[in-house]
Amino acid sequence: MSARGPSNPSLRGMDLRIEAHNQQNKHKFDQSDQGIGLLLFLALFFAVLYQDALLTGLLGVALAAVAVSAYYKRFAGRRLSLTVTARPRRIFPDQATELEVSVRNPARLPLPWLYVLVHLPRRIEVEGLEVQRAPTDAVVPIPFSLGGRQGLARRASAHLDRRGLYALGPLQAYLADPFGMQESVREGEETSRLLVYPRIHALGADFRRSLPIGDRRGRSFLDEETHYLGPRAYQPTDPLRRIDWRQSARRGDLYVKTFETVATAATALFLDPATARDPWDGIDREVLERTVELTASLASDLIGRGEAVGLYISGVFSEAAGRRAFSYRERPRTGPKQLSRMLEALAQVRPAGIFRDLPRIVVEEVPRLPYHVHVVAIAPHLTYELQRALLRAARDHDTYFLATGPEDPVRDAPLPAKVRPLHLLLR
User: Fold this and answer.
1) Domain containing 336 — which CATH number?
2) Chain centre to alpha carbon of residue 99
3) How far is CA 274 from CA 103, 267, 286, 348, 356, in A?
4) 409 three-class SS
5) Which residues pair with 153 in a beta bridge?
6) What is the pLDDT of residues 359-383, one digit of tens each?
């Protein structure tokens, strides 16, 4: 999942020195090839001069082989196309996906000896192919043999047992001439992505007793922004954020937007992925995975029952954010697309270091929620900052707290009286 290539300036400098060293070696090899060709040509010249038929034939064959080898090294595979894709590109842990490695040779020059190395996530399992694992990734070697203007594809079933956004690629092609005398390397820079959702578990009956669903209504038809009805005249009790400024300017008086009254229950989930109470505690991978899986299971269960669910996370790593941590905020909505968006964000959750942003997100986002929305905070531990934020949320909303880490009454903040504990058991 990490970007290819070091981010440390000293490591980048080391890579530049290695690349320069490789270029020097390549230049030396090219000079040696030219020297061998020149020697063979001179030997062939003297063999012809002395009219030695056997030696002339042998040297002619050797010189032709060297020429073909040099030609292949310089021109073979210059426009070679290398791609790797996964279908489907979104899976759950241990669910199979089909990897397709495609090689296309648009040139007329055939490639009889072609060896492709595919860089894949380290934890991937590929059926029917040898996987060579390294500390950072896994490499799958696949042999090909291509004619001119020909393309081939190899397919294999693969699966991953851990959530995340994984990079498939890059690819490296090792080409050899028909005589196997020289080898050249071609790089395929194109990469694709494979998203692995977190595991979803069935919820126990204790959850439904502690968090009732399906019986809540909005306080007014202005609370749910799903079914727009039209404008109406402004009343003193209407919130200012519902004013329809376009209609008000057109009609010369204040008008507000109206929406259809709905009976859909709504829940806003606030997730804190930080597993450490103190900076020196490090990261507890087991607690983190349990926290993410509980959140995913809760969101899936509520949306499956027709409830609107929103998700707010204080630490998500994404390609769009340059692989930096940012806050994910998704207002309560219903439907499978909403669940897909939340699972995609949960798949990329990583601990955001020692800084805890969830209390700030709760303070910023809860006042924007309609009054009928339940607030559920999910965190490994209840900190004093989160305790104060939940107390503010409990003034206008039914507020719950779900602890996913081990209990420690000495170090954890006490649960406020207005905030109810949520007991969530997985089956």
Assistant:
1) 3.40.50
2) 16
3) 43, 22, 12, 14, 7
4) coil
5) 102
6) 888 998 999 998 889 999 999 989 8
- The predicted model gives 174-203 an average pLDDT of 79
- Per-residue pLDDT, 352: 59
Question: At 190, is the pLDDT very low, low, confident or very high (cuts 50, 70, 90)?
Answer: low
As a dihedral over the C-alpha atoms of residue 332, residue 338, residue 344, residue 349, rounded to 10 degrees, the angle is 10
Provide CB contacts within 8 A for 57, sequence distance 6+: none
- CA-based nearest residue to 3, from 320, 315, 321, 323: 323
Neighbours of 49 (CB within 10 A): 9
pLDDT of residue 206: 58
User: Is residue 426 one of the residues assigned to a domain?
Assistant: no
Please say if the pLDDT value at position 208 is more than 90: no
Q: Are residues 177 and 192 in the same domain?
A: yes
Distant-in-sequence, close-in-space partners of 193: CB < 8 Å, separation ≥ 6 = 89, 165, 166, 167, 168, 319
Distance CA(380)–CA(400), nearest Å, equals 14
Q: Are residues 301 and 413 in the same domain?
A: yes
DSSP for 246-268, please give it. Answer: HHHHHHTS-EEEEE------EEE
Residue 87 DSSP one-character state: E
Do 302 and 255 share a structural domain? Answer: no
Q: Per the domain annotation, does 412 fall within a domain?
A: yes
Looking up tokens 């393309």 gives 151
Over the stretch 220-232, which tens digit does the pLDDT of each residue have? 433 445 567 788 8
Q: How far apart are CA 276 and CA 46, in angstroms?
A: 80
Beta-sheet strands, E only, within 160-247: 164-168, 171-176, 183-188, 192-196, 228-233
For residues 62 and 70, give the distance between their C-alpha atoms in angstroms, rounded to a whole number.
12
Handedness of CA 290, 421, 427, 334 (dihedral sign): negative
Extract the tokens encoding 331. 């207002």
β-bridge mates for residue 174, sequence order? 115, 185
Tell me the C-alpha distance between 324 and 2, whole Å. 11
The chain-wide mean pLDDT, for the chain, equals 78
End-to-end CA distance of the chain: 30
Rg of the chain (C-alpha set): 32
Strands 97-105 and 150-159 turn out to be antiparallel
- Nearest CA to 173 out of 213, 95, 233, 113 is that of 113
